[in-house]
């Protein structure tokens, strides 16, 4: 039932400052600011004019349509003054007295049209040669009605109609072109789509970020500082025959400071700096990506010495030929091919350096990684305790914190946290303090922030039945007891049965930040993870679904022992770990070997479960005391556990605090299997 909460994998530690819009930053492709002064009311006006034109060109002049029989009645009543026709449409003009008898509604509705056109009152149509034509002639002659024939100039009317709509279309087209191509170099035209979208930071820009704002990645800073120094003092290196590196690839987990380092380079280099994302090259139109690559490098060469930074380069740099379902000539591969050509195409003294960042270096094309393109691969790792301390120093500067804040303790409390996680901790602590109307941020605020980020928000209002609460308490007590009594298990700091997020209980441990891990250490961690289920079995004679995350964790650990690290005697010193992802859809072993692996994994887990039950059975009274303390106080600390179980007989290296959460629900985040299969250490805490 134990689940290690996977923390947010971001590690940037930028200094929190007010940022102001940078007027000197340019959008090289000319798309930023397109149509800023464009007003959509102009489009509405054009549409209105079109509709009005359609009404006017197709209007009958405002008169009321009638039938010939109605016309005959009006003639016999003496209401008709005269008629004008073109052989098809007959426009009837009434006498003044007859017009006054028309309804007010008809008069108001036709007033506008009568003012624009001839102002006839009635009209009817009658095709030439109709049987009523003779009747019409006889009727008008016998009643002395003036009937005048006026032929319509159809050619002129059609010509006017075409010219009118042509003008309207030209106006609409001009507005569309202004909207699409507005702003920036390249002209106001739709063909601007092939221009680069990179933002240009010119020399002298105040980017607000320098190397002083970057903490916890000293080795990566040194590499990039050398590149900056080469751009600013090239003679220092060229006099010895050295050549500037053509490119550097920043590799690391999300948020480990890759983009922040690039921002610092932009602030320190004092040369034109082009920045864009890998996805900026991608478009639905064929050839656009390659065109943007060419345009980007063209502008960079014109402003050399300069730097190009491509964030998330894996969007276009994925290895070619691995997607069998897609054509080898797809747009992404065309873009990559053009990028490869440009990177290796300019000469060594051109002064254009390429920086790129990715958290998926394993999926990049080998041609992109070779020397001559990316000469350096700079790994930005998660910070250790000393680096976390430096990052805390950066992020605490703008915060009104209490003088008693122990930064060393905060660094120890946050193992596995990235710079972005630490920035979030500082911000959450300030928010907690503000909610309480405190003048300064204290250590309790930081503790609450850490608990909030890793375990979720406390949900004291969640309704839990007494029986379930008792089960949760014994489950947590089982974890605490087993981990306290095993040498290599992480020692306990605090246990809680207050629900957080989806979890029903949480335990804080002091794990060792090991670089390598032995099979004994992994096995003890598995025993501690299964202590919750073992306690349920011993106390209630039955088990619950609350051990789901515990089982998931120990299964991954046991599987890694057998198939990754070669820690199983029967399978032997063999590793089936696929670091390159070349066997994603196939197993690198036979069916008989798969059966052996399944059997050995099951044996390891069962052995750990039996050991956990043996420990709890031998210390059943202590287990009950821990559970009762939890039921009474809901939260107990290391001192309470030590009072019940006695001092640990093993020396603890208290390096950090890690939150492990027990839940009977499937967690939102599942640990990355590749992360669990690290070359150095399984995720055993």
As for the CATH topology of the largest domain, it is Methane Monooxygenase Hydroxylase, Chain G, domain 1
User: Biggest sheet, strands in spatial order?
Assistant: 2-8-10-11-12-9-13
Percent in strands: 5-15%
Number of helices: 25
Helix content: 40-55%
**How would a crystallographer describe the biggest sheet?**
7 strands, mixed
Instruction: Determine Rg (CA atoms, Å).
Output: 40 Å
Detailed description of the structure:
The chain has 25 helices and 17 strands. By secondary structure, it is an alpha/beta fold. The protein folds into four domains: 35-181, 2-Layer Sandwich (Signal recognition particle alu RNA binding heterodimer, srp9/1), CATH 3.30.720.210; 194-380, P-loop containing nucleotide triphosphate hydrolases (Rossmann fold, 3-Layer(aba) Sandwich); 388-455, Helicase, Ruva Protein, domain 3 (Orthogonal Bundle); 466-676, Methane Monooxygenase Hydroxylase, Chain G, domain 1 (Up-down Bundle). It has a seven-stranded mixed beta sheet with strand order 2-8-10-11-12-9-13. Strands 1-17-15-14-16 form a five-stranded antiparallel beta sheet, with helices on both faces. A five-stranded mixed beta sheet has the order 3-6-5-4-7. Residues 1-36, 111-118, 181-190, 324-329 and 654-685 have low confidence and may be disordered.
């Amino acid at each position: 039932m134990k689940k290690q909460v996977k923390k947010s994998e971001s590690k940037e530690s930028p200094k929190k400052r007010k940022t102001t819009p940078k007027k000197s930053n340019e959008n090289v492709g000319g798309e930023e600011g397109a149509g800023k002064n464009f007003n959509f009311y102009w489009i509405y006006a054009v549409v209105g004019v079109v509709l009005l034109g359609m009404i006017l060109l197709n209007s009958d002049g405002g008169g009321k349509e009638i039938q010939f029989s109605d016309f005959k009645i009006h003639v016999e009543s003496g209401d008709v003054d005269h008629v004008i026709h073109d052989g098809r449409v007959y426009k009837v003009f009434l006498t003044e007295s007859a017009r006054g008898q028309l309804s007010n509604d008809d008069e108001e509705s036709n007033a506008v049209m009568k003012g624009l056109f001839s102002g006839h009152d009635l009209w009817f149509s009658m095709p030439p040669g109709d049987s009523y034509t003779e009747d019409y002639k006889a009727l008008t002659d016998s009643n002395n009605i003036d009937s005048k024939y006026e032929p319509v100039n159809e050619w002129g009317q059609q010509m006017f109609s075409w010219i009118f709509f042509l003008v309207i279309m030209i106006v609409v087209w001009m507005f569309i072109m202004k909207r699409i191509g507005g702003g920036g170099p390249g002209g106001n035209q739709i063909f601007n789509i092939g221009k680069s979208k990179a933002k240009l930071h010119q020399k002298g820009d105040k980017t607000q970020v320098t190397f002083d704002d970057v903490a916890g990645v000293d080795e990566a800073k040194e590499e990039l500082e050398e590149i900056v120094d080469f751009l600013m003092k090239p003679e220092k290196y060229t006099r010895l025959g050295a050549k500037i590196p053509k490119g550097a690839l920043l590799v690391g987990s999300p948020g480990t400071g890759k983009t922040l380092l690039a921002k610092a380079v932009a602030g320190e280099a004092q040369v034109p700096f082009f920045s864009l994302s890998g996805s900026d090259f991608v478009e639905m139109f064929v050839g656009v990506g390659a065109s943007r690559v060419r345009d980007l490098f063209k502008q960079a060469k014109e402003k050399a010495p300069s730097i190009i930074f491509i964030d998330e380069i894996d969007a276009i740099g994925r290895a070619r030929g691995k997607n069998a379902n897609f054509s080898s000539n797809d747009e992404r591969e065309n873009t990559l091919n053009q990028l490869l050509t440009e990177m290796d195409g300019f000469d060594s003294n051109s002064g254009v350096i390429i920086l790129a960042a990715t958290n998926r270096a394993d999926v990049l094309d080998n041609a992109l990684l070779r020397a001559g393109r990316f000469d350096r691969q700079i790994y930005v790792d998660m910070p250790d305790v000393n680096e976390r301390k430096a990052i805390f120093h950066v992020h605490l500067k703008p915060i009104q914190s209490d003088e008693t804040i122990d930064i060393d303790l905060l660094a120890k409390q946050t193992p596995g946290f990235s710079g972005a996680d630490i920035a979030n901790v500082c911000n959450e602590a300030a928010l907690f303090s503000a909610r309480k109307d405190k003048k300064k941020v204290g250590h309790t605020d930081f503790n609450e922030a850490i608990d909030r980020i890793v375990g979720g928000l406390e949900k004291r209002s969640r309704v839990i039945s007494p029986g379930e609460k008792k089960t949760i308490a014994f489950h947590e007590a089982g974890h605490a007891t087993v981990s306290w009594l095993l040498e290599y298990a992480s020692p306990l700091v605090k246990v809680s049965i207050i629900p957080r997020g989806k979890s029903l209980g949480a335990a804080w441990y002091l794990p060792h930040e090991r670089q390598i891990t032995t099979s004994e250490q992994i096995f003890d961690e598995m025993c501690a993870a299964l202590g919750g289920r073992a306690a349920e079995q011993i106390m209630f004679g039955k088990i619950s679904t609350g051990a789901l995350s515990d089982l998931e964790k120990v299964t991954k650990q046991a599987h890694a022992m057998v198939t990754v690290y070669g820690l199983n005697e029967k399978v032997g010193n063999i590793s089936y770990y696929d670091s390159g992802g070349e066997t994603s859809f196939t197993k690198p072993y036979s069916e008989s070997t798969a059966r052996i692996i399944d059997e050995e994994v099951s044996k390891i887990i069962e052995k750990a479960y039996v050991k956990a039950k043996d420990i709890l059975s031998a210390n059943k009274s202590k287990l009950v005391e821990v559970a009762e303390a939890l039921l009474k106080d809901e939260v107990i600390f290391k001192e309470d556990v030590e009072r019940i179980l006695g001092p640990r007989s093993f020396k603890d290296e208290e390096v950090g605090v890690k939150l492990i959460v027990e839940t009977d629900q499937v967690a939102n985040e599942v640990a990355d299997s590749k992360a669990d299969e690290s070359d150095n250490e399984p995720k055993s805490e």
